[in-house]
Specification:
Shape: elongated
Low-confidence stretches: 26-30
CATH superfamily: Glutaredoxin
Mean pLDDT: 88
Radius of gyration: 20 Å
Distance between the termini: 72 Å
Structural class: alpha/beta
Oligomer: single chain
Number of strands: 8
Length: 180
């Protein structure tokens, strides 16, 4: 009887793998959890895109802000850019993380499309992105006044995302934050 049971082992393994694959296909990549939620923004010391100072997490925290991972090679970043400008015009502080990009191309891009960012962090090697757990661009992190990551959004920020998710969280943090 035991040799006959051995014939079913590959079938059982296939069944388990099929179940795991089916579960993985049901996941929405925009809802990928981040290990950084409720943890401090990773420490960094990277150049500013405008060629000025070196930026650190201490120099870009202190108020509730968005940190937007973007690049000139990212088509969706171009689509979301006008909405980020709208948010910046409304007073929402946004810091850019220019991810694995050419700095000269990024400066031209901002000169052409406008610059919604208070400052842009050059992450040419992707080290900050790696520490953040970035899967690609665009991604946007909501960081509280104490520099703690409170939310991560994968994909384009648009009116629907702002009105239903990011905006309410942003307003809640501004009302409860120690630095607002």
């Amino acid at each position: 009887m035991a040799p006959r049971l051995k014939l079913f082992i590959p079938l059982a393994l296939f069944g388990v793998l099929a179940l795991l694959l089916a579960r993985g296909l049901q996941l929405d990549p925009r809802e990928l959890p981040s290990a950084l939620i409720d943890r401090p923004l990773p420490s960094f010391s990277l150049p500013a895109l405008d060629g000025g100072e070196t930026l650190t997490n201490a120099s870009v925290t202190g108020e509730v802000s968005l940190f937007n991972v973007w690049a000139t090679w990212c088509i969706t970043c171009r689509a979301e850019h006008p909405y980020l400008e709208k948010l910046a015009d409304a007073g929402v502080p946004i810091y850019g993380i220019n991810y694995k990009d050419d700095s000269a191309a990024a400066r031209r891009w901002l000169a052409e499309l406008g610059n919604p960012y208070r400052a842009n962090i050059v992450d040419a090697q992707g080290t900050l992105g790696l520490d953040l757990g970035v899967y690609g661009a665009p991604e946007t992190y909501l960081v509280d006044a104490d520099g703690v990551v409170r939310y991560r959004h994968v994909g384009e920020v648009n009116d629907r995302i702002w009105e239903n998710t990011l905006g309410p969280l942003y307003r809640e943090l501004r009302g409860a934050g120690s630095g607002s």
